[in-house]
Q: What sequence folds into this?
């Protein structure tokens, strides 16, 4: 009588986790694409909570953690500013304050990153792909200015782009997982066929 023994396989566990992640990404992407406005509001609300929590933590740390004088002052100012922005986001939430805060935060980040990248590329002529760095830097800076100038519209567009990207990622991961499952099954079948049978 042949005894069947299960073989531990990387494929067996990997494809399940990848498939689960892919389905989550795909579902989230579809939700964002179907309700981009509501998705932005949820993200803005979560960002407001983050500002409040991080601001309170920074303010407390400024008084309880031993840091040099100027660093403590900066930590306190940063904490108070974060709390103020968080309170403002929820105080006028229905009028889009939270979305405005989130968009401004993203826009300023794009702007500074773009300016920094452009200046770096201009000042260092030996930088590989220098022209490409200048182009992407200018593009990031322009994107930041657009987001700051048109926060609501920009956030909806960003949500749609993010949703489409999640759908692509989720679909790719799901397809890979199905292929990995088939490949794993074939490998295990070959391994089982090579095992010596035991007679009992």
A:
């Amino acid at each position: 009588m042949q005894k069947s023994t299960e073989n531990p396989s990387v494929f067996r566990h990997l494809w399940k986790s990848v498939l689960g992640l892919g389905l989550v990404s795909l579902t989230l992407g579809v939700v964002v694409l179907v309700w981009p406005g509501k998705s932005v509001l949820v993200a803005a609300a979560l960002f407001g909570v983050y500002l409040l929590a991080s601001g309170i933590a920074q303010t407390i740390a400024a008084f309880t953690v031993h840091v040099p004088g100027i660093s403590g002052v900066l930590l306190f100012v940063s904490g108070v500013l974060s709390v103020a922005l968080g309170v403002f986001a929820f105080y006028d939430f229905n009028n889009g304050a939270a979305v405005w805060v989130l968009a401004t935060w993203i826009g300023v980040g794009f702007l500074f990153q773009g300016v920094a990248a452009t200046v770096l590329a201009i000042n260092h002529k030996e930088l590989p792909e220098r022209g490409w760095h200048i182009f992407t830097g200018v593009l990031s800076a322009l994107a930041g200015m657009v987001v700051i100038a048109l926060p609501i519209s920009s956030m909806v567009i960003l949500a749609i782009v993010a949703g489409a990207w999640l759908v692509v990622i989720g679909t790719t991961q799901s397809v890979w997982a199905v292929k990995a499952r088939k490949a794993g099954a074939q490998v295990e079948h070959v391994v089982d066929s090579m095992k010596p049978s035991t007679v009992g």
In short: Residues 151-194 form the longest helix (44 residues). The two ends are 6 Å apart (CA to CA). The CA atoms of residues 7 and 189 lie 10 Å apart.
